[in-house]
């Protein structure tokens, strides 16, 4: 790179010339723009990349993640609150707090809650394993099912609701899903009566150090478990979900907002609101969306 002296053969005579050879095209890591914030994280099928979604609707790909489009530059009626990828990684959905759903790549649109008079804002989305449907969850515990996602219940009107629902995650089927509240109370839907786990499960009798912001399933053919994520980056495990690390004892520049798990469930990433990425277990770090 820089200035180089080259010999240039003309068609008539031999001539000397100085030619500017610009720098090779550099790979610039995408970053969360000023005034925006990261809100959601999704892994690629290989586990060697991830997408970061922002409140403004931007989607920032890292590693082997391919950008399939975004809402960058679109004037939104409500901020984006989450992202869910299709099973083959060929697309993704963005969901906004007004229940709007936006499809990109091979992600199909099955409906949204944007036309409804919602009692509470939507806080998250989860897709069915065949990408044939998805659920939306609202902070009052309401659940909306679209496509082949089956409605198995909600927390609307639940007398034991101890605070706003902050996140939704689904099992590897089309009928089971988890809701978690800011205080860490956990509700699961779709199990038959008497199956474990059922109803509510409090992580602790004392208030958490930070509100819980995400829940991620670790269900397999023989084990059931979940990870719960606190806004301080604390990771809590229930059932079969293993602990690989957290950022609870790290001085963070911004609150942690989302979690994504590797396809083999042997690692996970945490996402900060500033776009920072923290990798644990076999989850590779392939870039951060935090402004440099």
SSE arrangement:
Blueprint: E1 2-9, E2 14-21, E3 38-43, E4 49-54, E5 59-63, E6 80-85, E7 91-96, E8 101-105, E9 122-127, E10 133-138, E11 143-147, E12 165-170, E13 177-181, E14 186-189, E15 199-201, E16 212-217, E17 225-230, E18 235-239, E19 256-261, E20 267-272, E21 277-281
Antiparallel strand pairs: 1-2, 3-4, 4-5, 6-7, 7-8, 9-10, 10-11, 12-13, 13-14, 14-15, 16-17, 17-18, 19-20, 20-21
Which descriptors apply to this entry?
three-stranded antiparallel beta sheet, Methylamine Dehydrogenase, Chain H, globular, mainly beta, four-stranded antiparallel beta sheet, 292 residues, 21 strands, disordered N terminus
Care to describe what's here?
The protein has 292 residues and is mainly beta. The chain is built from no helices and 21 strands. The protein has a single domain, classed as Methylamine Dehydrogenase, Chain H (7 Propeller), CATH 2.130.10.10. The strands form seven sheets. Strands 12-13-14-15 form a four-stranded antiparallel beta sheet, with no helix packed on it. A three-stranded antiparallel beta sheet has the order 3-4-5, with no helix packed on it.
Number of strands: 21
Strand content: 35-45%
The first-level CATH class name: Mainly Beta
The assigned structural class equals: mainly beta
CATH superfamily label: YVTN repeat-like/Quinoprotein amine dehydrogenase
Give the H and E element order: EEEEEEEEEEEEEEEEEEEEE
End-to-end distance, in Å? 24 Å
Multimerization status: single chain
In percent, how helical is the residue content? Answer: under 10%
Task: Give the CATH architecture.
Answer: 7 Propeller
Number of domains: 1
Q: Helix count?
A: 0
Mean pLDDT: 85
Spatial order of the strands forming the largest sheet: 12-13-14-15
Summarize the main sheet.
4 strands, antiparallel
* Rg from Cα: 22 Å
CATH topology: Methylamine Dehydrogenase, Chain H
Low-pLDDT regions: 1-27
- What is the general shape? globular
């Amino acid at each position: 790179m820089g200035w180089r002296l080259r010999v240039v053969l003309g068609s008539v005579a031999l001539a000397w010339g100085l030619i500017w050879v610009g720098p090779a095209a550099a790979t610039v890591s995408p970053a969360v723009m000023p005034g925006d914030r990261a809100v959601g994280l999704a892994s690629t099928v290989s586990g060697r990349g991830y997408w970061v979604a922002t409140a403004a609707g931007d989607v920032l790909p890292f590693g082997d993640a391919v950008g399939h489009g975004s809402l960058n530059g679109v004037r939104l009626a409500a901020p984006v609150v989450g992202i869910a990828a299709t099973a083959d990684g060929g697309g993704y959905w963005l969901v906004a707090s007004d229940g709007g759903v936006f499809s990109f790549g091979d992600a199909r649109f099955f409906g949204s809650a944007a036309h409804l008079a919602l009692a509470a804002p939507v806080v998250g989305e989860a897709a069915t394993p065949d990408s044939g449907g998805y659920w939306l969850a609202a902070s009052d515990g309401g659940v909306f099912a679209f496509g082949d996602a089956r409605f198995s219940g909600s927390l609307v009107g639940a007398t034991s609701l101890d605070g706003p629902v902050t996140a939704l995650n689904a099992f590897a089927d089309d009928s089971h899903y988890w809701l978690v509240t800011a205080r860490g109370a956990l509700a699961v839907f779709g199990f038959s009566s008497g199956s474990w786990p059922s109803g509510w499960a409090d992580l602790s009798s004392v208030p958490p150090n930070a509100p819980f912001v995400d829940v991620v399933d670790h269900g397999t053919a023989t084990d059931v478990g979940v990870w719960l994520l606190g806004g301080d980056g604390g990771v809590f495990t229930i059932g079969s979900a293993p602990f690989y690390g957290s950022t609870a004892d790290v001085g963070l520049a911004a609150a942690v907002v989302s979690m994504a798990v590797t396809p083999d469930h042997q690692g996970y990433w945490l996402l900060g609101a500033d776009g920072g990425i923290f990798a644990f277990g076999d989850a590779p770090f392939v870039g951060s969306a935090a402004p440099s």
